[in-house]
Design brief:
Radius of gyration: 17 Å
Helix content: 40-55%
CATH class: Alpha Beta
CATH topology: TIM Barrel
CATH architecture: Alpha-Beta Barrel
Distance between the termini: 9 Å
Number of helices: 11
Number of strands: 8
């Protein structure tokens, strides 16, 4: 188990500070938020400087989260490809093995199969770019998107058919999507799992919008997910890679961020042990 700090848990923090924080709060790795990483690079800092910082604090980069809107078409997707190139180059230098891919609801007005085909076509282009840099990708299914279940995610992997594409097991998204259970996760081949997002939360009301920070603003044990069951399901596969403590919470972002990092780590280790 590679105990990893998730940059979404410490949202109001920059890249350099998060690396030090991860070290000081007992993590082995860090999952970078792509927006913070791009902001760091835009200010003239280099991937090599970040690698030196990671080495200094003995922290490994485990994932970059995420390349978003991978289902979009036209000019938007051209921008996605540019971001992909930048993040893959950076990942190669900082020795980050995985970048996350997120298809949202941009094609939800199309028939499902048409949207699925277009999404997979785009993902093929993205993962082929990553292949040239030695980067693997983890697909995250999103609870409110057309592709929202573990089964649908596995369908994407089968259609794309690339050896540098796997999945992340995100407890909240899979649970809130409504079509995946811990028993389904337990059936996975561990080689498909690139990482785990350890998190808790609530379900969307019967009617109303998905307000993710409100639904996910809970430490493990405070929400409605049987977190222990999801942990046991992952462990039963034999997976022993990256576990990332993800806390997407407006309330906790206003805590002392060192305290957030320590508590998120403590709970993840406690539940996953």
């Amino acid at each position: 188990m590679i105990v990893t700090m998730h940059g979404l848990s410490t949202m109001h923090c920059n890249v350099a500070t998060e690396v030090r924080m991860a070290r000081e709060t007992g993590y082995e790795g860090i999952e970078f938020v792509e927006g913070k990483l791009l902001r760091y690079l835009e200010q003239g800092f280099t991937a090599q400087q970040l690698k030196q910082l990671l080495d200094q604090h003995e922290i490994r980069a485990t994932c970059i989260n995420a390349i978003k809107d991978v289902e979009k078409q036209g000019e938007t997707f051209e921008n996605v490809l540019q971001i992909t190139e930048t993040l893959c180059k950076t990942a190669q230098v900082i020795e980050c093995p995985v970048i996350q891919l997120v298809p949202f609801e941009g094609l939800q007005d199309l028939p499902y199969e048409e949207g699925f085909d277009l999404t997979c076509k785009n993902i093929c282009q993205i993962v082929d770019i990553g292949k040239t840099y030695g980067v693997k990708f983890q697909l995250e299914v999103i609870a409110w998107a057309p592709i929202h279940s573990l089964r649908q995610g596995l369908d994407v992997l089968q259609r794309v058919d690339r050896d540098n594409l796997g999945m992340v097991v995100d407890f909240w998204h899979l649970w809130a999507g409504g079509d995946t259970t811990p028993a389904d996760v337990a059936k996975l081949d561990k080689s498909i799992i690139c990482g785990v997002h350890f998190c808790d939360g609530k379900m969307i009301p019967t009617e109303g919008p998905w307000e993710e920070p409100g639904l996910r603003g809970y430490l493990a044990g405070e929400g409605d997910i049987d977190v222990k069951a999801w942990c046991e399901a992952v462990k039963s596969t034999g997976f022993d890679g990256t576990w990332s403590s993800e806390l997407l919470s407006l309330k906790h972002w206003e805590w002392d961020l060192w305290e957030v990092a320590r508590e998120a780590r403590r709970l993840m280790v406690e539940y996953a042990s």
